[in-house]
Amino acid sequence: MSKLVIATRESRLALWQAEHVKSLLEARGHQVSLLGMTTRGDQILDRSLSKVGGKGLFVKELEVALEEGRADLAVHSLKDVPMDLPAGFALACVMEREDPRDAFVSSRYAGLAELPQGAVVGTSSLRRVVLLRAMRPDLKIEPLRGNLDTRLRKLDEGQFDAIVLAAAGLKRLGLGERIRVAFEPEEMLPAAGQGALGIEVLSARRDLLDALEPLSHHATALAVSAERAVSRAMGGSCSMPLAAFATFSGEFLQLRAAWGDPEGAVPPVRAQSALIAADVSQAAALGTAVAMRLREGGAR
Ligand SMILES: NCc1[nH]cc(CCC(=O)O)c1CC(=O)O
Predict the structure, then answer these.
(1) What is the pLDDT of residues 253-291, one digit of tens each?
(2) Cβ(169) to ligand 1 under 6 A?
(3) What are the residue boundaries of the Porphobilinogen deaminase N-terminal domain, all occurrences included (predicted)?
(4) CB 80 near ligand 1, within 6 Å
(5) Which of 37, 44, 144, 270 is in Cβ range 3.0-4.6 Å of 122 for a Cys bridge?
(6) Counting beta carbons within 10 angstroms of the beta carbon of residue 156, is it exposed (0 to 12), middle (13 to 18) or buried (19 or more)?
């Protein structure tokens, strides 16, 4: 069968994800190799992502490799993939989702409620900041960047009383025991696409669709399509605190979303809706409808 090259970032999580796709494809008879590369997002570690150009930072170099024919596939955490891909690129495959929740990580405290008044919590996600503030306005929330190992090290060095990370990344790296408690979506609604992997290809590469089809996961694709439609309709960038989380069971797609005021002047606006969805365009329509409800509720 075909020989495929996967372009990947070189963080431990990105490599795990690329290896995961590699082994799934190999099990189906393909020959696969990895092409590791460093992206702008990996180089810029001192500033909040929202200030330096956003989600595209982790994706651009991988797209150049696809364009130049040095690689066939790029594996991404969907959360980091911009809503609209550049012309000529397509999200060919959405894979089964890992745990979509956010995780409370701390060595001293068992959960948010145990944190003392004014405790220091690390996160650079604006979504996590506004949702944490809504639950615990007293906390001191401080920026936390770097790859997963760096963030855990900063916690272990005592720079924070607790940090918040995606459960999916920790579990993939075998660090699931660091999770003291996973936030229920009612408390901290996940980001669009959190926990799901997507495979990007050049749109012209119809030849790859057959190889990728067995890796795609219908329920995840529907959920993520609804979530990403919320972000798209809200003009979502990572400078907007936005959460969107959908679940699909039976034929029923349920979507919840939350918008936070970046200045924190008003509490988060929440909206939800559900419908029977059979394909990704119906799922996206649900996302658009929920975005409209957010706006009606005061989201900008
Ligand atoms: N923003 C970085 C990022 N992109 C994807 C994940 C975790 C894995 C996932 O959501 O699939 C993380 C780390 C985090 O948010 O803690």
Answers:
(1) 999 999 998 887 889 999 999 999 999 999 999 999 999
(2) yes
(3) 4-207
(4) yes
(5) 144
(6) exposed
